[in-house]
Every structure is written in structure tokens, then in C-alpha cells.
Amino acid sequence: MRLAYLGSLLVASGCLCLLDARWRLFFWRAPARAAVTTAVVTAFLLVWDASGISLGIFLRGDSPFTTGVELAPQLPLEEPVFLAFLVYLVAIAMFGARRMLDAARSPRSPRT
Predict the structure, then answer these.
(1) Within a 10 A sphere around the Cβ of 90, how many other Cβ atoms?
(2) Looking at residues 100-110, what average pLDDT do you find?
(3) CA atoms within 13 A on the CB side of 110
């Protein structure tokens, strides 16, 4: 059970990769730009987390579903994985919604 959360994040990230590959929304559209964007935003969110941890706002709770590995005090191994997943999810949702709106506005698309 100790790898349940990390495993779930990795499986969900794999599902996002399949969506991305099928519709070429983010990494399969512009891999270098997507990698830089993901790294920069994830790093920003990690700094945000570190600030919250230092102020005592964010605390790591004990759970049987996490690995228990801490990268820093109160910063579990799963946190950067979750933040990268979150960035990827938002990017795919944003570019997917944009593509759907563009298709709906296109004069070539049938209107119902």
C-alpha cells in the first residue's frame, strides 16, 4: 500500500500521455516548449510549497498510501510528481478546450 499514491499519480500521468499523443495537445505538439514550461511551473510550485512549509502552513500528514520518503522536511517524494502531473493536466485541459472551441467556431464544422 505504500506506493498506492505514487503509483496512482504515475498511472494517471500515463493516461494523460495517451490523450496527449492521440490529440497532440502539449508534449506531442511542441516537446521542448512543453518540457520547459512543465519544469518552470513545477519549480515555481515547489518554491511556493517550500514557502508554505517554512511558514508552517503546509504539513505532511502520515498515510499508509505514501512512500514515507521526504525530499526535505515536510516535503514528500510524491509532491513534485503531483505538481508535474497537475501542470500536465492543466495544460492538456487548456489546449483541449481551446481545440474544441476552435472546432466549434470553424465554418467547416457542422452545427447542430
Answers:
(1) 12
(2) 82
(3) 1
Residues 6+ apart with CB under 8 A from 7: none
Per-position DSSP letters for 42-101, written without gaps between them? HHHHHHHHHHHHHTT---PPP-TTS---EEETTEETHHHHHHHHHHHHHHHHHHHHHHHH
Contacts of 83 (CB under 8 A, 6+ apart): 42, 45, 46, 49
Q: Which residues pair with 76 in a beta bridge?
A: 70
pLDDT in tens, 81-93: 999 999 999 999 9
Question: Rounded CA gap, 19 and 97, in Å?
Answer: 13
Residue 3, pLDDT above cutoff 80: yes
Report which DSSP code applies to 109. Answer: S
Residue 61's pLDDT band (cuts 50, 70, 90) = confident
d(Cα 104, Cα 61) in Å, to the nearest integer? Answer: 45
